[in-house]
Amino acid sequence: MISGLYSQEVLQGLQARDRAVFARVYEHFYPLLFATARKYLGEREQAEEVVQDVFLRLWEKDFALEHAAALKSYLFRAVINQCINHLQRHRLLESHHDTIRHLQEESYLCTFLEEQELRERIHYAVERLPEQCRRIFKLSRYSGLKNAEIAHELQLSVKTVENQMTIALRQLKAALLDPPEKNIPAADRLKLLLWLLSI
Amino acid sequence: MTKPTDHYSFILSCLQSPEDEALQAQLASWLAADAAHRELYRQVRLLWEQSPHAAFFEEADAPAATARFLQLLDQTKVAAPVVPLTPARRRWWPAAAAVLLMAVAIAWWQYSRHRVQWIAKTTTGQPDSVLLADGSKIYLNKHASVKYPAAFTGKERAVQLIAGEAFFDIATNPLHPFTVVSGPAQIHVLGTSFNVKAANTTIQVYVLSGSVAVAHQQHSLRLQAGQGASCNTRTGEIKADSAAGNNQLAWRTRELQFTDTSLQAVCEALSNAYGVTMVLDPGISKERKLNANFSNKTLPDILETLTALYDYQFEQLNDTIYVHLPVKR
């Protein structure tokens, strides 16, 4: 569905330092790579710098990637390595010792990439929730507030908060985990399909 | 027990109240009853557990970041050696100057765009307060230091407690969460009032109203009104502090309440509230209990009352209080 970015043409564009291809690949992978770096580095500026560095290196040096399909795992791995460098450079090694040990295990990275992709899909699905529902879900899951606290902040009843949370969970599950051929009305299926195509 | 349409709200309350044993028992039997229940629960729980991590994706503005990257690419091109296409020197020299000028302009634009004017406030012998741009207030105890922006821009509001103790009264604004950064620890709030004391390797937090989350790397702890916690900045450990109470705010409120409080704890509260050092005679029992309330009293008044209640002498010399047994005649 996103084969457009895993083509030999894109790979050749990167290798030929085509500015437009770089822009396209950068914009597409930025959220995933940024969120990955952001998990290990304290500030968003640092996380963005790490992603920039990875792409600048691609630009400045020849990179030999044989299979276009491996582009995502290549970039993910490069960002992780750059994070380890950053932590080591800033003498944060000691406090991040366990983190770094984990990050060097291939099996952990595999699971981690999958988790990050699910989180990204959750992010997009949350953005598509109705406004009130979205705000309540974010306060609960992103900011860690209790239902009563959300009710207090937004001047709503606790029951309303609970109901909206239920609606959010139901919609997220339908959008992310239900197989498209089952139980989804044609209109919703079309929407989901368009959404998947747009990623 | 639950209608099929209620499955989601049932699972939601189970996820939100892991401490409710009756509910968890109900969940166990519901799960045991049907494989479809187990699959639904597994999926909803997956979404529930993964969704807090989706928050970082909110910060990722891909189009803006891509624009910044392309700018960086253009600057990298400038940094590469400029090879004149023609042997005539004066041809590339003005062009290089123009390019350099542009690079400087871009760098300046980048710099001014990200610049936030920070203001520092430091107290010495007198407490003081600061009114922030959003209407929030910070009350600083003696020998405290904070840094705050002249204006809050962007999604989050953040200030720094550099040293000492301060009381924060934060204006409610759910869309712009407020964070107090103290060394490696952060305190996240929406709208609330709370006290933070940073000393050596410990950061103490006490909440008067609302609720906050104290965070240090992977650790984090939520606190409600009337609850306190201390964070060890070296190990990152955050512990609930059951002894914390309103007396922690006495440096500002001048309200002290002692209920069956040991002399030891009374001395700690006084030293904290009035910024004095307490020196006790070795012969004095630190466990002797006190029941008393002091409201808006000066330190000499309090010492006089304590002398009467305890039949010990409380004497002040500069910033030190000496507690000793009465001199026998």
Identify the quaternary structure here.
heterodimer
CA-CA gap between termini of chain A = 8 Å
Low-confidence regions of chain A:
none
Mean pLDDT of chain A: 82
How many whole angstroms does the radius of gyration of chain A measure?
20 Å
Domain RNA polymerase sigma factor 70 region 4 type (chain A): 119-172
GO molecular function, one term (chain A): sigma factor activity
Family (chain A): Belongs to the sigma-70 factor family. ECF subfamily.
Pfam families (chain A): Sigma70_r2, Sigma70_r4_2
Topology:
The complex is a heterodimer of chains A (199) and B (329).
Chain A: H1 8-15, H2 19-40, H3 44-60, H4 71-89, H5 97-103, H6 106-127, H7 131-141, H8 147-154, H9 158-176, H10 186-198
Chain B: H1 7-16, H2 21-33, H3 35-50, H4 55-59, H5 62-79, H6 89-114, E1 118-122, E2 128-131, E3 137-140, E4 145-149, E5 157-169, E6 178-182, E7 185-189, E8 193-199, E9 202-209, E10 211-216, E11 219-224, E12 228-232, E13 238-240, H7 250-253, E14 255-262, H8 263-274, E15 277-280, E16 289-295, H9 299-310, E17 313-317, E18 320-324
Parallel strand pairs in B: 5-6, 15-18
Antiparallel strand pairs in B: 1-4, 2-3, 3-5, 4-5, 5-8, 6-7, 7-10, 8-9, 9-12, 10-11, 12-13, 14-16, 17-18
Helix pairs in contact in B: 2-3
Organism (chain A): Chitinophaga oryzae
GO molecular function, one term (chain A): sigma factor activity
Domain RNA polymerase sigma-70 region (chain A): 26-91
Could you explain the architecture of this structure?
The complex is a heterodimer of chains A (199) and B (329). Chain A is an all-alpha fold. Helices cover 73% and strands 0% of the residues of chain A. Chain B is of the alpha+beta class and 329 residues long. Chain B is flat, with a radius of gyration of 29 Å. In chain B, α2 packs across α3 (35-50). Chain B has helices at 7-16, 21-33, 35-50, 55-59, 62-79, 89-114, 250-253, 263-274, 299-310, and strands at residues 118-122, 128-131, 137-140, 145-149, 157-169, 178-182, 185-189, 193-199, 202-209, 211-216, 219-224, 228-232, 238-240, 255-262, 277-280, 289-295, 313-317, 320-324. In chain B, the strands form three sheets. In chain B, strands 1, 2, 3, 4, 5, 6, 7, 8, 9, 10, 11, 12 and 13 form a 13-stranded mixed beta sheet that branches. In chain B, strands 15-18-17 form a three-stranded mixed beta sheet. Helix content of chain B is 35%, strand content 32%. Chain B contains nine helices and 18 strands. The interface between A and B is large, with 53 and 45 residues. Chain A: Belongs to the sigma-70 factor family. ECF subfamily. Chain A: InterPro entries: RNA_pol_sigma-70-like, RNA_pol_sigma-70_dom, RNA_pol_sigma70_bacteroid, RNA_pol_sigma70_r2, RNA_pol_sigma70_r4_t2, RNA_pol_sigma_r2, RNA_pol_sigma_r3/r4-like, WH-like_DNA-bd_sf. Chain A: Residues 119-172 form the RNA polymerase sigma factor 70 region 4 type domain. Chain A: One of its GO terms (molecular function) is sigma factor activity. Chain A: It comes from Chitinophaga oryzae.
